[in-house]
Amino acid sequence: MKAAAMSMRMATRTIIKTMSTITPMVMRTAMTMTMTMIMIMIIITMSIAVTRITTMGTITLTAVTPMLMTTTRPEPPELSGGMAPGEAAALYRLMTFLSPAFPVGAFSYSSGIEWAVEAGDIVDRASFGDWLAAMLSDGSGLCDGIFLCHAYRAVEAGDDRALRDVAELAAAFVPSRERQLETMAQGRAFIDTISAAWCCDGFDQAIACCEGPIVYPVAVGLVSAVHAIPLASALHAFLHAVVSNWISAGGRLIPLGQTDCQRLLAMLESMVMATAQRALAATLDDLGSATFRADLASLRHETQYTRLFRS
């Protein structure tokens, strides 16, 4: 028993002595492994970016920057959906300026359509389409398009005298008091909104050159020019907005359903494009209207007994 106990004590001493020499080695090994793992994690996380430029056989280290220390800023794209950035901005502004939601109060005016419905000149989609086609191609649609084009070109050329003359002629060209109210009120609302939310270089100067009331087509031409919106695009969008407002008024008065209103828009598409082409090529000497019934309608509306619209 004594011998066995002595053997156990000797074995224990040996183990303790052995452990006392091994433990520091184990701890050093563990620390080394821990430091290695930390370094590996740092290398993976920091992801060193190295740029090398090879010139005449020489490799030069130009930048070593930890990725986590930088903020990646995307470069401005050369194209935005197939358009240059300037074109995309112009389209965005054009869609905004001539949207039905733009606060010019266009929904309050019918351009004499209300009296034409009351008088029986417009009774259905077919008769309404004929009325609109005449107003667009031979009446206020074409004339307003010509005024827009000449106002735009005057601003683009920096010709203050020409801009003032166009603004004055356009204000005097409307055939009735209510039509004058319609185009001047919309022009004023359009200019006020642009001034408050979309003002840009050259805008105030162009407004000052007009020296008087600015009717709606002149206002759209002026603003399109200072915002670098292409003339043809501005003109087509303007004519589309005018026709859409006419159709909206007729749809409420006749009345027409939404599908019939869209059929009218589709029917007038080619006429809008043809009117725009005529307006782009026209001079101020080409101004004129042959829509006598529509002009009479705007005059008669002033004394119409029941009215939903201001013109």
Structural description of this entry:
The chain has 311 residues and is mainly alpha-helical. It has a domain at 87-303: Urease accessory protein UreF (Orthogonal Bundle). The protein is built from 13 helices and two strands, in the order αββαααααααααααα. It has helices at residues 2-46, 85-97, 113-119, 125-138, 140-157, 160-172, 177-197, 203-210, 216-226, 231-253, 258-267, 269-281, 292-300, and strands at 48-55, 58-66. Strand 1 (48-55) and strand 2 (58-66) form a beta hairpin.
Spell out the key features of this protein.
311 residues; mainly alpha; Urease accessory protein UreF; two-stranded antiparallel ribbon; 13 helices
What pattern of helices and strands is seen along the backbone?
HEEHHHHHHHHHHHH
Q: Ends: how far apart?
A: 126 Å
Poorly predicted runs of 5 or more residues: 42-72
Rough outline:
globular
CATH architecture title of the domain at 87-303? Orthogonal Bundle
Helix content: 55-70%
- Give the biggest sheet: 2 strands, antiparallel
CATH superfamily of the domain at 87-303: Urease accessory protein UreF
Summing up helix and strand content along with how strands pair, one would put the structural category as mainly alpha
Approximately what portion of the residues adopt beta-strand conformation? Answer: 5-15%
The name CATH uses for the topology of the domain at 87-303 is: Urease accessory protein UreF
Name of the CATH first level of the domain at 87-303 = Mainly Alpha
| Global Rg | 38 Å
Lateral strand order in the biggest sheet: 1-2
Tally the helices: what do you get? 13
Oligomer: single chain
Mean pLDDT: 83
Would you report the number of β strands?
Answer: 2
